[in-house]
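Usage

Read records sequentially. Each one opens with the input sequence:
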Amino acid sequence: MYQFVDTNEEKNGILAPSDNMNINGVGLNQYIEGYQQLSVMGRELIGYNVNATEIPLRNGAFFNYRQLPVRELEVTYELKSNSPLEVREKFAQLNQALKPELDLTFDDEPDWHYYGMLTDASTPKINGLVAVGSFVITCFQPFAFKKEQQSKGNISLEYADRVLPQKITLHANTTETIEVSNGRETLKLRGSYSSGDLVEIIYEEQQVIIQKNRKNIASDLELQSYPETFYLRDGDLITVKNGTLVLVVWRDEKL
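and closes with the structure output:
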């Protein structure tokens, strides 16, 4: 829990705490005049949900598995207004700002992004023209994701044990087969490639797209190649057979 507010810190001339929350890079205090973040909780340790089976007449239990729950970020805020009418208007602005899916950063870790949506809010205490309340943003992926990193093959991870790439780009030779390797797994493509063809393996949230010169060539992926298991680890060197690697893009992640 962060409760300290550095009264000497300003962002674009607007008073803000050192851990101020931003939506798409812009603080709520910049969206809404009179908004002040008082505290934020939920970026600390996160426990696991454990599944275990109790065995009759035996102490303890049999461990099955554990998994991470969602992450909940609780923000306490103060909202100052100049008139009763303005109170209602500023709550409308706050509702509007928190309505979509949110890309969140905090001033004390600006390179790390949390993704979530508003799921709960307290009834604010209103004293005259000052309201104090809180709201909860649920991150269904509990990780914070670093901004995109890229290289010509060398992979560096600071926190994650492994991550899937965001994108792999290469130029093909004149060939019928292309192999991309991380030293453990290999992605094999079989088709017709000319020298200089642009081949891209693009990892989207629900699917992997494989393109040649911007056209879909998913059918070129050989049956024993599994992009969903092609993980990157710290220190990996990505190599290409029958082509030249242009770029690998990935994102580190942390709890």
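Summary fields computed downstream for this record:
- DSSP finds two helices and 23 strands in the chain.
- Residues 84-97 form the longest helix (14 residues).
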